[in-house]
Design brief:
Blueprint (H helix, E strand, L loop, with lengths): L1 H35 L15 H13 L2 H5 L6 E6 L3 E5 L15 H10 L21 H13 L11 E2 L1 H8 L27 H7 L1 H7 L30 H10 L15 H4 L4 H11 L4
Antiparallel strand pairs: 1-2, 2-3
This protein binds heme C (HEC) (2 copies).
Length: 292
């Protein structure tokens, strides 16, 4: 009797193991296939300025989009996550220093990365949130590239990115934006210039930076960061919908909401929104309030 039970327990466990391994292999090949997909895109080239006004404007774009959060304040690169199960990813060193990708990138390469989320080989970049950037105006995208190119070289060689076993499963389930090129409308043509004014239209333009976490409908939900905090609803139906403009400005500048909640910059990057002007935050609030 005991031998029979042992035998059947063994068979059950072995079958379970086979099922788990098979499911993992399906996830693995799904993710690898999507990472190795080569995209054919029509890169619309634009001139990249070199004057100091453009570089200064690009520095603001870099701060407003929170690029430094992953690439470092000196563009030297920064390891954002290093977990044996989920994986490791670093915003690479963008300068011309040792380990910097700036050594051999052309204007077209920078543009392809920001507009299409694609690397030199035509494959999707890993994790880089280009889906929040590709609609930037030609002026803004050109100035941020001008800023990157104007930065002094910093030596910093970071280890290569990789997905761990759990990271592969989460990616296959689309819980992690591991292949941003999939999330981009590659036919989209940006405006040459976007008017910077206190209007819902300009707020909509700025709100691109919020969609990756707050979801494109701004209703919040699951975080794109594995294990990340539940993301709040910031549309008219959420708490910020009831705030005055000055309360909205104060919350996004100090990290403290009118209800007294302290926002953690690692979850909700309020140090990024703290760099926005009153007019920019008002425009954002105007737009978010139109989303019922
Ligand atoms: C969430 C983290 C994150 C943020 C925010 C981010 N990046 Fe990245 N970026 C990455 C990662 C990771 C890569 C490397 C992708 C790869 O090598 O596949 C990358 C790659 C790049 C590349 C391509 C580098 C190359 O190999 O050619 C450029 C250019 C770039 N980022 C610029 C920016 C700019 C400009 C911003 C802000 C507008 C920004 N990034 C914001 C994570 C980030
Ligand atoms: C990296 C992810 C991320 C990005 C990018 C992001 N948020 Fe958030 N945001 C969060 C999370 C997570 C919370 C919830 C924090 C909490 O509950 O403590 C939050 C909360 C908020 C709140 C407070 C809501 C409340 O009910 O208290 C406001 C306001 C807000 N975000 C506005 C914005 C705006 C505007 C942008 C774009 C400029 C933005 N966020 C970009 C993740 C993000």
């Amino acid at each position: 009797m005991i031998r029979k039970i042992l035998k059947w327990t063994g068979i059950t466990l072995a079958s379970l193991l086979v099922v788990i391994i098979a499911a993992w292999l399906v996830a693995y090949f799904n993710v690898r296939g999507r990472q190795n997909k080569v995209y054919e895109v029509n890169l619309r080239e634009i001139a990249i300025p070199t004057d100091s006004a453009a570089v200064a404007a690009g520095k603001r774009v870099f701060e407003m989009k929170g690029c430094g959060g992953c690439h470092g304040a000196k563009l030297e690169g920064h390891t954002e996550l290093d977990d044996p199960l989920v994986g490791r990813f670093s915003g690479p060193n963008l300068t011309r220093g040792k380990g910097g990708v700036g050594n051999d990138r052309t204007d077209a390469d920078w543009l392809r990365a920001l507009r299409h989320g694609i690397n030199k080989e035509g494959k999707s970049l890993f994790i880089m949130p280009s889906y929040e950037y590709y609609k930037m105006s030609d002026e803004d995208i050109a100035s941020v590239i001008a800023f990157i190119k104007a930065q002094p070289a910093v030596d910093s060689d970071l280890p290569r990115d990789k997905l761990g076993p759990l990271g592969i499963v989460l990616s296959a389930l689309d819980k992690v934006p591991f292949a941003p090129a999939e999330m981009i409308d590659h036919e989209y043509v940006s405006k040459p210039v976007v008017k910077k004014e206190v209007s819902a239209a300009y707020g909509e333009y700025l709100s691109m930076s919020c969609t990756g976490c707050h979801h494109p409908d701004f209703k919040g939900g699951e975080s794109p960061i594995p294990g990340g905090k539940f993301v709040a609803d910031i549309s008219a139906s959420g708490k910020p919908g009831k705030w005055s403009h000055s309360q909205f400005i104060a919350a996004l500048r100090t990290g403290k909401t009118p209800e007294g909640k302290e926002l953690n910059n690692a979850e909700m990057p309020w140090k990024m929104t703290a760099t926005y002007t009153d007019d920019e935050l008002t425009a954002l609030h105007l737009y978010l309030q139109t989303i019922k």
